[in-house]
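Render this sequence as a predicted structure.
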Amino acid sequence: MSDGNEVIVIGGGPAGLMAAGQAALSGARVILLEKMPQPARKLLISGKGRCNLTNACSLDEFLGHFGPARNFLKPAFHTFFVVDLLSFLSNLGIETVTERGNRIFPASGKAGEVVTALLNWVKACGVKIYPNQRVIRLVCENNEIKGIEVQDLSRTPPRKVIYSASAVILATGGASYPGTGSTGDGYRLAQEVGHTIIPVRPALTPLVVAGEVAARLQGLSLKNVRAEIWSNNKKVAQEFGEMLFTHFGLSGPIILSLSKFAVDALNQKQSVMVKLDLKPALDDATLDQRLIREFDAHSKMQLRKILKNLLPQRLIPICLEQTSIDPLKIGSQITANERKAIRQWLKNFSFQITGYRPFIEAIITAGGINLSEVNRQNMASKIVRGLYFAGEVLDIDADTGGFNLQAAFSTGYLAGKSVARVIGR
């Protein structure tokens, strides 16, 4: 058994790195164990390699993106929030820029810069980082942490090692992008010592649709549209913004944000639809007047050409097929019923959702350690003394825009500071 460790952090993502550094800054002896050859593999590809660090919206709006987990996150965000993160990063030499949707990125546009700065900071704090360490189990006695057992993958053949510890911070991430090391290990480790795991499923993941329409539109991106999720003929959620058609279905920011509702409904064997409003700024009456003006102004022009004023070229044949209107009809020949059909199609371009893409394509994981079993004031387990949690391993998830990464940094900060206080540093 390896002795002399006060705090062990399991997982080298943003939550684990922040937790380890803050615990060490407070005077604790800290080691960080990472399963992969290098920490922060997932952070390196976040934001398509640009690293969407956080979001500049208000605290209330920020919390609103986390749904039921908003109250749990309040203490973490009150302790370490956007301004604190930006100041922290600035001290590491990372300047930031705010872009559309209040999304904050490193000014360099390179996630690698953030990863390098964090790793250098953690090492400067005195944290010892051991890569290639797969944690087998948490060692507990009488519901109290005593250490961990790992498989040291850096050795040939791998060998088992037991590390003693006064406290353990579990920051193993979720189950999305498993190639980066996020394979759901933390759920098993927590469950083995008595914690309840809310069923995990992909979140912020593309959706699979029936039929060939999406495939015909593959690569087409739509902006300023509204997407709605309908489950068993009831609207359950909506988002406004940008989306993308793919060879299997739908993707893009607003689809990813809505995907959790679709995933949960599908898992409950419900019928799920996505309805697209291609003209969300116009109500039904205003849109009807717009169509009347178009047909009057181009009374001798064929419908297929008039629609260029209303739709991207690739959507026109889809519109004509689904409304069953002759594309060669001229504007003056369009009847009131045909105009109504076009209007309804523009406001309700619909797709039957048949599935969703797997964890390998999901940005984050929904589900995780039951929040009712974690003290939100310090991220400590209510079941096992000396056990703390941070980041995506918890049952917290939000939509895109930098919210999830801020939650990782904030819960990691709170866990690291709390551990140091408990062990008397």
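Summary. The first strand starts at residue 7 and ends at 10. The radius of gyration is 25 Å.
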